[in-house]
Amino acid sequence: MHVVSLYAALLALLFVALSIRTLRMRRRLRIAIGDAGNEAMLRAARVHSNFAEYVPLSLLLIYFVEASGASSLFVHALGASVVVGRLSHAFGVSQVQEKFAFRVTGMALTLTPLRVAALRLLQVFASTGVAQPFYKDFPFCQAELNFLIAVWLSNS
């Protein structure tokens, strides 16, 4: 079992909670689309949207880092940072009287693992000259991915 699956599960539960919160607010305020000028609705929608914008790429990069052979501790640090960052951001931005320190902390804890994971993957790529076989756990698509990598390498 991959460490990243723990963080994918935790973040999925947080996404569901944010979705339900936004849907309930829409129902209570009778706002089907947009925010109708209601600041609380705007904030709830932005927290939900911001989560959807950052979390998928974060999890994907963390998965690749883990598949490249990074230590479990390193992967846990990346995943925990994203979880705490998203919680902090959600709390800060949700407040009509915004708690800006939570927003800033949340974005820092979200962007740092993105940057660190990307740099780690570039370092792995640079040290090996080729992408690590992250897809070894997926034999059903290995031939297709080998073909795509060969085509990509032949065109570079």
Describe this structure in words.
The protein has 156 residues and is an all-alpha fold. The protein has one domain (4-155): Up-down Bundle (Four Helix Bundle (Hemerythrin (Met), subunit A)), CATH 1.20.120. The chain has five helices and no strands. It has helices at 4-29, 39-67, 72-94, 100-128, 142-155. It starts with a helix and ends with a helix.
Number of domains: 1
Radius of gyration: 19 Å
Largest sheet: none
- How many strand segments? 0
- In what range is the share of β-strand residues? under 5%
Order of helices and strands: HHHHH
CATH class: Mainly Alpha
What's the pLDDT, averaged over the residues? Answer: 85
| Low-confidence parts | none
CATH topology: Four Helix Bundle (Hemerythrin (Met), subunit A)
Query: What is the CATH architecture assignment?
Result: Up-down Bundle
**Shape field:** elongated
Q: Look at the helices and sheets and give the structural class.
A: mainly alpha
Give a short synopsis of this structure.
With 156 residues, the chain is mainly α.
Give short descriptive properties of this protein.
5 helices, mainly alpha, Four Helix Bundle (Hemerythrin (Met), subunit A), 156 residues
Secondary structure: elements and pairs:
Elements: H1 4-29, H2 39-67, H3 72-94, H4 100-128, H5 142-155
